[in-house]
Amino acid sequence: MEHLESVFLALGSVCRMFHESLKQWWIPFFTVDGAHTTVCGATVLCLVATDASRRLVPMAVAFVRSETTASWTWFLQKAAEAYPVLLDDDVVIMSDGSDAISAAVRTELPLARRMFCMKHRLRNIARTFSASGFSDRLYSLFYEASTAHTPQGFDHALSKILDTCGPEALDYIAQRPQNTWSNCHVGLLTGGALTSNDAGT
Fold it and tell me: 113: how many CB neighbours lie within 10 A of its CB?
């Protein structure tokens, strides 16, 4: 099993900081991500929180062979043991939207609202339409639509996507329902300018 060769680290002082009794002092918004290291050839999985001053607080780190559903499932199991508050129903988990992370969150943190990083979505748009000649325009209009604060502003941005980039671009944008990425349709405490809901309705 992959996790038998893995290492999980969580500082006791941080674990105590995220105790249920101190919940008023932190935002229930957590980010998970992974990165491959060339030094030891391992992949680092991390869990990060945002405090009330919107500063990042490292909560847990693990070294695994690679980013797989199994490794993320094991990591989130350990994280939930160290931080039981992750099992609450008001928790938001943000990630890059990878299938492995999403599957693990659904299994281990079933009450959490799943979200994806808007920067990753914008990067995917730029890469997918790099040869189209309008990738910069689509990038800009998608950001405009996702951060619109009114349905009217959102619809206006979508109409501009259709007019200037064509139906293929609009179909790509519409792969996810509006209430999974539009600020005016989501209305979460974090704001759609940074993240979008990845959990559906």
Answer: 20
